[in-house]
Known about the structure:
This protein is α+β, with helices and mostly antiparallel strands.
Amino acid sequence: MSITEQEPRTRRERAARSARPRRGPVRRPSLPMLKRAAGLGWPVALALAICVSAFAVDGWADRRSEGSPAANRALVDKAATEKAVVGISAQIAQIFTYTHTDPAATERAANEVLTGDAIGEYRKLFGVVKKNAPVMKLSLTTKVAKAGVIKLSEDGTAVLLVMLDQTATRDGERTGPPVAAQLIVTARNDQGWRISDLRAA
């Protein structure tokens, strides 16, 4: 092959080499790039998002559970509900039964079972009877006709609707037919029921 024939081939080879893309210097991946490549970044973010969501759901569930039917033991605990009805009904009947011959008995009963706001509320509800009974020689007998638990909480607090039949007598004779009354009663079982709120329904 002659020199003249080799020159065109050499020019063609040079042109082909010049047309190829040139590679730059090889760059080592930085540490953040390695973390992203290895997938170390998004699991941490995902775990954090799950934790935050879990706390949010727990708080929402707690708020929901406070007002949910499951929070009211009166709907699911028949034995505890019956005990609340029996115990609180007996106390209501006792503190609203009064005889002019032994007023101290009612006072003692009220002091034993009433606490907080119920003391002042009781005085308002029963004040008229206590004022007039000694003069008129009146006695008042109170019976619980019916009682139902509206709510019974986990801490032992009960809210009841209590329906009363009250009969007044004077010198042993009835002064009239029984009178019906309704009370909303809030009490807490703390080694025995203590009535903390007492109001006419």
